[in-house]
Amino acid sequence: MVKPSRIILVGLPGCGKSTIGRMLGRRLDLPCIDLDFEIEKKIDCSIKSFFQKNGEAQFRNIESLVLKDVLSSNGSFVLATGGGVVLKEDNRLLLLPEYVVYLSSLPGDLLKRVGSDDTRPLLQTDDLLVTLSVLFQTRHPLYELVADFVIATSGKSASKLTDEIISGICL
Which of 15, 25, 35, 128 is deepest in the core (most CB within 10 A)? Predict the structure, then answer.
């Protein structure tokens, strides 16, 4: 397999996309782009604020525009996406030709990581485990659909996951 020049990370909120993206970028000497950060630059406010004012549908439209802009560039990079990027078919079609790594995490594992995080709009619920379970049921098949490489995150450090991804792409 030829080492991909661009690596796209997908997965549920809290699975480690941003952290692993930065580590992969450093290890592979590639810039790491965080899609959520790029979105916040475009909307000039936090995603949480945008969600509160404009709702999820408007956010998903902006997310699609920013994803398209990032993927239309010719450079090599690691891209950490937002957890819901796979919800729109147009986004999935943009991701299919790319090398996509799905960081597969179980809801119970994610609960420990995102339980006190109040910056994630969809996770501001009374029963976070139920919310994460619903997100998993809805999104897991979509992540698998776009993924070239699926890696289970349970019980693994970001460093270990980064090593496994590098081993997987450099076979």
Answer: 15
